[in-house]
Write a structure and sequence with these properties.
By secondary structure, this protein is of the alpha/beta class. It is built from 7 helices and 6 strands. The chain has a single domain (about 40-215, about 225-235), classed as Rossmann fold. α1 (about 1-40) packs across α6. The radius of gyration is 21 Å and the shape is elongated.
């Protein structure tokens, strides 16, 4: 009886070890795949980001849980306002969480960007961007975007770009980082897990957005030809 129990425990431990090894390989492999397939679509300097009609700014809280200003929020707003100022983007889709009346990410983004000089007619708010996945599905199906620039932190962009391109959108990314801010290990770990979960959302369980709604295409003024925009960009970024 004792020998049978030992054999059973041995097999159980071997099975658990094999499952742990498989999970580890999937975790590492999934992250490597997302990073490797999106690296070519990410620009780390705003002046190098692809000019396009609409840029998507991903929502996050204006404040941290400790009650201080969220540097990630302000880095996104600063980058988005700069892209508008230098005519690389004509319009901004502000997509974030507004599950309750007391928490409204799009409205906070709108106010901050307006304070930074972005005109109200250059901004559209999406109040149902409850997740990165929801934001991109709604950008495609509700706001009728097939080509766009994604504006968020460098650690977030690979997942966002992977989702967008998997949905058939022509997306590139513009990094909105703050060089003075260190990304904590807990945030990195959460993002590593989210990348793997994204593969499941897309290819296994067929995730649907929390709320889709009816189409609301963003109406834009006609964009100037790119050969007229680029000279002015070069002059602005090389001016003393």
């Amino acid at each position: 009886m004792h020998n049978v129990l030992l054999k059973w425990l041995g097999r159980l431990l071997m099975s658990l070890g094999a499952l742990l090894l498989l999970a580890t390989l999937l975790f590492i492999g999934g992250n490597f795949w997302v990073l490797a397939t999106t690296a070519a679509y990410i620009e780390r300097q705003p002046q190098q980001c692809r000019p396009t009609d609409v840029g998507i700014v991903f929502g996050t809280s204006h404040w941290t849980r400790s009650g201080v200003r969220n540097p990630h929020f302000h880095a996104r707003m600063r980058t988005a306002a700069s892209l508008i100022e230098h005519s690389q983007v004509d319009h901004l889709l502000l997509s974030g969480d507004n599950r309750t009346q007391a928490y409204n990410e799009p409205r906070a983004m709108w106010r901050e960007l307006y304070r930074r000089g972005v005109a109200s007619e250059q901004m559209t708010m999406d109040f149902a961007g409850f997740s990165t996945y929801d934001t991109l599905v709604r950008a495609r199906d509700v706001f009728q975007l097939d080509k766009t620039l994604l504006i968020t932190q460098g650690w977030h962009l690979p997942r966002a770009i992977y989702i967008g391109r998997a949905l058939g959108m022509d997306v590139t990314g513009c990094v909105a980082d703050d060089a003075t801010v260190n990304v904590g290990w807990h945030l990195k770990l959460r993002e590593w897990a989210a990348r793997v979960a994204t593969l499941g959302d897309l290819y296994i369980w067929g995730r649907e957005p929390y709320f889709l709604g009816t189409p609301e295409p963003i109406e834009l003024k006609e964009r100037a030809p790119i050969d007229l925009i680029l000279p002015s960009l070069n002059e602005r970024f090389t001016a003393p």
